[in-house]
Model the fold of this input.
Amino acid sequence: MKNISNFNINENDLAAVSAVRQFTVAGEKDASFILQVFNSSQQFYNFKSRSFSATHTSTSSLKIKMSGNTYSNSINFPANGSGDTYTVLLIAPPDKDTELSFGKGKHSYSTTITQVADSTLTFTPATTNDSSYKTFPSSVTSTATPTATSSIIKQLDWDVVNTDSDANGFGLRLIRQPINTDWYYTTEETVDGAVSSSTEIIVDDLTDLATGMYITGISGGSSLSGTPTITAIDTGLKKLTMSSAQTFVDNTVLTFQARGSSVIKKAIGADIDFSNWNASIISATSAELTKVVRTTASGNDIALVGTYGISGGGFVKMSGVGIKNTAENLIQVVTADDHLGSNGSILTEESQAIKVGTKMYFKGSTQTVSIVNKFKINSHPSSNKEIFLNLDNFITPGVAS
Done:
């Protein structure tokens, strides 16, 4: 009886691109074996054409009688962006006086190789103040295999623009620079069983949940107490331990957020480096805002050729030829009468004497905030995910007064 002592092939996950894997069979001279490879669709590998086919032919089985102690060859795995699973089957035919001395059986051994599908990361601006913005710029996407070992640099260049309506066209106020934790991933899970003033919650599913995530939303007849975070997860019981006690009825739907690189990585497995997003780096800038005086001003009420982009409420400073700024002189009230047309006025703290046609400069609100920075993707998740940039953390819509 001849012996096959080992079969060796790289069983690591395949990327979605084509690849060649070498294999080696070790055993005694004159030992015989048959090798077959098939995918999840029951297509067989043809060792002559080096491709997979639904048609099984004589060349779909590699039949070898070993002329030495080892036999080596290779298998060509095709590109498949959707992923696949391949079974490699080694057979020692009983009628060839050959047995296997490894694995669980004497006459067959199989192993599987998984081809991981590409996944897409989508990066999108987000706000709860939809009525204050025009249509957002297109999302930034990155598609790659989760098995990739090289990093991808993505450049973000967004202009977010204030709506030009009379109701909400009072500009955008950039209150700080965007930072790492302004980026977030969000998911929903359902409470399994009512809880009363408890820090422990059972949920239906733990997919994409991780310690450090916040509960940010709730529906289903319950209310949220404070801003709780997940401090521990019992995977066996599907139990979450929260940072503060909550009271929920059964089937309450909870919205969770993973904020910043490290918590996002724990939640979905995507390693995204947002370290370049911090308070000391200029990622967001306000476009210059200028207006023209419509009629000669004498007093605190200044008529302008449109007021689109100017905020009232004591946030915006103004400057220009002949403008008096002996005090802080912030704009208190904006009267919007056709933002884009020829009407509208502002009420200032100090009385002014400004000639018609004077160009005025405003600082503190703008029509457009430009967000320009880059980030590095070190690894993709196993499935498509969307990451959001929370504009509300660093941009505040302007007000009339």
User: Anything to note?
Assistant: The chain has a mean pLDDT of 94. The CA atoms of residues 155 and 374 lie 4 Å apart. Residues 119-177+282-378+394-401 form one domain. The first strand starts at residue 2 and ends at 9.
